[in-house]
Amino acid sequence: MLLSQRITHLNTNGTDGWEVFVRARSMKAAGLPVVELTIGEHDIRTQTDILEAMHVSAMNGHTGYAMVPGTDQLRDTIAKRVSLRTGVPTDRDNVLITPGGQSALFAAHIALCDPGDRALYLDPYYATYPGTIRGTGAQDIAIQTHSRDAFLPQQALLDAAAPDAKSLLINTPNNPTGVVYPKETIEMIAGVCQRHDLWLISDEVYDTQIWQGEHVSPRALPGMAERTLVIGSMSKSHAMTGSRCGWIIGPKEVIAHLIHLATHTTYGVPGFIQDAADYALKQGADLEVDIAEPFRRRRALALKVLSQQALLRVIPPQGAMYLMLDVRETGHSGSSFANLLLETHNIAVMPGESFGRAAAGHIRIAMTVDDNVFVTALQVLCDFAQSLGK
């Protein structure tokens, strides 16, 4: 008996790009001291007052089925937040609460793409993007960006790929590169979408982690609110990764259909988690700045360490919690460099190849450990690179 092509083709060549991460976790389980610089997991966990709000909600009985679209209270809070930050009038009917940003990405593509439709996304990409698209039955079409262009998309390549496509997925601040798309790039992308009648899916889960420049949501540009779905999440902004609480912002008609989808798939998000998310969002921007501060600080520390060597080229991170390093001068691919680093120094980083062809020959470093451990690991990594370069 055969399984569906959707499930067997989620990962090409039988790999999902997480091999180094899995090896590192196996080593830790065996008792080895591994420094994990792999996934975007805060080293400082969800704040205790947020957990207390979750506990109080659960103890007060909000443990049954919550409303499938999300609680009115949380949807109103998110709508108000989006309205204030973007200037686009938004109310609860523009908001669907989802079990994390990943669920939102899948639902957005289900809403927009029929089986066989061409769904575009940019390379480098977050590792789940291709499989998410293939899981909906759509064709995943990667559009290359290049380090020489600071990994910013180029109009000519977008225009060439756009005919007969249905959607375009972008991510800014970007994972894995740390690039923040400037306003002129967002305006260029909006122009491509309007000329070619594309839906735009904008993954903005890192919008509170901006180190240089400013975040521009394409939904705020003229003519874009009616063709844009925005993905948001509590995971990065409030260190609530395990709580699995995200959302989609979009036109009311699309959200109404997505509510039907949620009824037949997730059946909503637990009410006590939504109440905790509502509490966290109502603490305002100061809390979000506090959650982001360790990564701002570590970015500065990393750039100082990396400035003392010339072999590894850093893609200056403008946002998010990652560094991208070009390791090709060592004579290694990102994959071989990451595996050797793990084997010889018990330091785990993500190979660039996990994030697409454009990131080959790079590694991604998550700035997600204590400052002193982080600096020491970077220094060891640089020394290791020098030894390979020789």
TrEMBL record:
Keywords: Aminotransferase, Pyridoxal phosphate, Transferase. Residues 34-375 form the Aminotransferase class I/classII large domain. Transmembrane segments: none annotated. Its cofactor is pyridoxal 5'-phosphate. One of its GO terms (biological process) is amino acid metabolic process. SUPFAM superfamilies: PLP-dependent transferases (SSF53383). InterPro entries: Aminotransferase_I/II_large, AspAT/PAT-like, PyrdxlP-dep_Trfase, PyrdxlP-dep_Trfase_major. One of its GO terms (molecular function) is pyridoxal phosphate binding. It is an enzyme of class 2 (transferase). Its EC number is 2.6.1.1. It catalyses: L-aspartate + 2-oxoglutarate = oxaloacetate + L-glutamate. Belongs to the class-I pyridoxal-phosphate-dependent aminotransferase family. PANTHER family: ASPARTATE AMINOTRANSFERASE. This is aspartate transaminase. It comes from Parasedimentitalea huanghaiensis.
